[in-house]
Amino acid sequence: MKIILFHLMEQSKNILMGRRENWRCARLSAIRLTMLSVLIQTLNDEERLARTLASLIGGAVEGVVREVIVCDNGSTDQTHRVAEHAGCLYVASGGIAAGIRQAKGDWLLLLEPGARLGEGWIDEVVAHTARQTMPARFSRARGSRVPFLSRVLSGSRALAEGLVISKRQAAALSKNARSAEAIARGLATKKLDAEIWVAPAK
């Protein structure tokens, strides 16, 4: 009886290990297919940019974040140095459209400077891009939620919750939109089950 139980336990263990390995391989394949280009539009945002870049480190380590493109609108502070020291591609002219043209990923992640992504965002984005074609936004972290009435009265920012969008759709929208905010405005999107700490208003 003990021998039979031992063999059953060993078989279960091997099956579980096999499933974990298959899941890991599937996840790595999905990550390789995703390869995001992150675009951040800036104007005198050196401190905000640094905070956002720090929250993307995990994505770079996992291989999901292929590149970060900083599209600057004429900053006079040290935004360009923050971008260059972090290894970002710094686009000094042409706005968001120029950044989209230079992006190498099939999927883009547009963020406001100062926004920070919470834990679990990598798996959520990988899963979304593997099975969806529509854009998506993140869920606001509890600490950065604003009452509905306050949002209506102050005017909500379309990019406050970030935007995951295919490069093809973003390129088409950028022909008439001069900013990342304009690209995000009015889009029908899916809500991701991953949190974002919204950048404070300037």
UniProtKB/TrEMBL annotation:
The keyword Transferase applies. It is found in: Cell membrane. It holds the Pfam family Glycos_transf_2. Keywords: Cell membrane, Glycosyltransferase, Membrane, Transferase. Residues 37-112 form the Glycosyltransferase 2-like domain. One of its GO terms (molecular function) is transferase activity. Coiled coil: none annotated. It comes from the Bacteria. InterPro entries: Glyco_trans_2-like, Nucleotide-diphossugar_trans. This is Family 2 glycosyl transferase. It comes from Mesorhizobium ventifaucium. The lineage of its organism: Bacteria, Pseudomonadati, Pseudomonadota, Alphaproteobacteria, Hyphomicrobiales.
